[in-house]
Amino acid sequence: MAATFLGVRHHSPACARLVASVIAAQRPAYVLVEGPADVNDRLDELLLGHELPVAVFTSYRDGERAHASWTPFCGYSPEWVALTEGRRCGAQVRFIDLPAWHPAFADRSNRYADAERRYADVVDRLCRVFAVDNVDVLWDHLFEIAPVDRIEERLAAYFDLVRDGPAGEDDAAREAYMARWVRAAVAAAGDRPVVVVTGGFHRPALIRLAGLSTVDWPDVPRLPEGAVGGSYLVPYSFRRLDAFDGYQSGMPSPGYYQRLWESGPAAAADGLTGSVVARLRRRKQVVSTADLIAARAMAGGLARLRGHPAPARTDVLDGLVCALVTEALDIPLPWAARGRLPAGTHPAVVEMVAALSGDKVGRLHPDTPLPGLVHDVAAELDRYGLAAAGTRTLDLTDDTGLAASRVLHRLRVLHIPGVRRDTGPATGSDPVLAESWTLTEAGGGAGAGGRLAALIEAGGYGATLLDAASAALADRIDPAVPDVGRLAGVLFDAALCGITELSGRVLADLLRAVGAVGELGPLGTVLATVLGLWRHDRLFGTRHSATLGAVITAAVGRVLWLAEGVRGGAAPADLGRLGAIVATRDAIVHCGRTVDVDAEAALAVMRRLSGDPAVPPDLRGAAFGFGWSLGPSNVDPVRAVRGAADPQTLGDWLAGLFAVAREEVLAAPVLGVLDELVGALPEHAFLVALPALRQAFAFFPPRERERIARHLLARRGLVGSARSLLRLAATPELLAEARALEARVDELLVREGLV
Question: What pTM did the predictor assign?
C-alpha cells in the first residue's frame, strides 16, 4: 500500500488535528515523522510523560565547528501528535530526518525553522490576493479558523503552490535521506498503510522520491571521528516558542494556539480577551466592563467582515486595540509583521502580546536521563553550601571561599540562571578581597526548569563544571575577529574561574587574535589587564602564568609593530595609545627577565619614533619618555623639552612624556624649563596651548600636582598655600580668557583716550 504524505506547518493546531484523524482512521503500520533519526532508540524516553513543552537539545563540537540545536514539541505540534497517536494505535514510530548536528543544519539553531523564507514571493502574492498582512494571518484565514472540511486537500494544494522551485543543497540532502526511510517502511509494511508527517515544504519532493527503487533501511549517521556531541531532553517554554520573542518557526502566540487546540476558535478568542484584560488590570490599567464589551463586539464585527466563522487571533487583537488604545500609535502593530517587538511598542500592545504568548514552562519526567554536568553542578553546589537561594559573601583569601567563588564564576560564564555577582574584583590588580553573590532557586524567572534547561544545554560543553566553563571561554575567542575587549574579558574570567592555563589550541587562537589587532588603544587595555594578572594575582593563581606570559610577549611585539606605523602630524593626544606605550614599558620593567620581551628592540623603536617629526607629538613624547625611563643616563630631557616648545603641540608632547616618565620628570630640572617656556608664551599662544597642557598635567595625581605648585611658588620667591592653587573658583581656561578680555578692553580704552 502506498504512503500517505501529510505536509504540515510546525506547531499548527489544524495540522495536528489532521494528523490525529488520519492516524486514527488508517491505523498504519508505520508513522514516520520529520525529526532526528539518532533519537529513535530513545523514543521511550521522549514519551515518558513530560509536561510540555519540551525539546530535544543537541550539541556538537569538533576542531572546526561548534553547534547547538533544538527540536521543540508542544501539545499541538503535529510531530508530537504523530508520535503519541502512532504509539497509541500500535504503529512503529520513527524519526526520519538527519541528526541535528549534521552539516545540513549548520545554519539553523532550530530544526523546525520554517521554510517560508524560501518561498516568500509566493506567500506575498497569496497575502495580496486574500488582503492580509503576513503569512500568520494568511494561515489562520485559510486553515485555523476556516471549516475543517477537505483540509487535507487544501493543505496539499497550498504546499504544492508554495514549493516554487528546487530546494537548496541542504534540503535536498535531507529529503533524499527521508525518502529512503519512506521506501523502506512501505516495503516492510506490506498491505498496511504508512503515514509520513513532515513540513509541507518537503512533501512534494518526498512524494516524487518515494517512487525510487531502493528499499533498504538507511543507516543513522554517526558523529565524525574526533567530534563530541549528544542529545538530551530539556524543558522548554511558551516564551521560547513565540515568534514575537525571536523564535524562527511555526506559529506565534503559543498561549493562544494552546487554547485553540484545546477548546476551538470561539473559546480561544474569549480566553484571549479575558487574559489581556486581566493582565492590564494587574498592572493597574483601567479597563472597564464597557471596554471589554466594546472589544468583543469589535472582534466579532471584524470576524464577520473578514469572512471568519469565529474571531481569529488578529480579529481579537485588533478589537482590543480599537477599544483600549485611544492615542495614535507610532509603531505598527506587531501582528502585522513577524519578529521581535520593536522598541517603542505601546504598553497595552506589549501586554496583549504577552497574554498571547502565555507563561507555560515544561517539566521533565523524573526518570529522564540527564547529562553529567547536571550531576556535577549539584555536587559542587552542595559541597560549598551554595544550593539554597539567598545571598553569599565569600572571602577570597580563604581557600574555601575562593573555591566557592570559582564554582559560581563557572556557572556565570555558562550563563546559568539564578547566579548573580553583586560585588567583587574587577581587574587582576583590584585590591578587593571579597565577593557578594545573590543566588535564586527559581533560575532567573523561568522557574526551576529554566536552570535545569540551561545546565542540560551547557552539558554540550563538557561533563564537569570545570571542563564546560573552559570550553565556553574558548568559544568566546575568535581569531578571525580580534575583539580585544572580549579577549581581556576571557582572560580575566578564566582567572576568576580558576582556569590558570588554557589549552594549546585555545592559547594559539588567543595569540592569533592578539596578532591581528589593528589599534594600539584596545591592545594596550589587554596588555595592561594581562600584566596585572601576571604580576600580582596570587589570589587567583595566575602570577607568572605561562599562558599570560605568552600573551604578554605577543602583545608587546604587536604594540611595537603598530606604533612604528603611526603617522599624522599634530593629532591631539590619544590616551589609548599612550596607555599601550605605558603597558609596554611596564612589561619590559617587570617581566623582562621572565617573559620573552626584547628591551633593546623596544628602545630602538622608541628612539626612531621620538625623533620623527611625522609621528604625532603625543607618541613622540611617550617614545622619548620610554627611552628616558629605560635607557642610558645620558639622555638630555631639558634639550628635548626645549625642542618641543611649539605652543600648538607642546601640551600633546608633554602628555606623552608625563604618561610614561612622570616620576623621572619630578626628579629632573624639567619643571623649571617648562615654567620658563610657558611663562614666555604670548597671551594668545598660551590660550592655544592651555587645554592640551591641562590634559598633560592631569597625569600627575593630586599629591604630585601640589608638589609642582610648591616648586613654582619657590621659584618666584612667594610664600603661600600650594594646595589653594589647585582649587580655583573657575576653570583655568575661563580665567585666561578673562585676562585676555581685560587686556583687550584696556587696549581699547587707551586707544580711545578714555584712560
Answer: 0.72
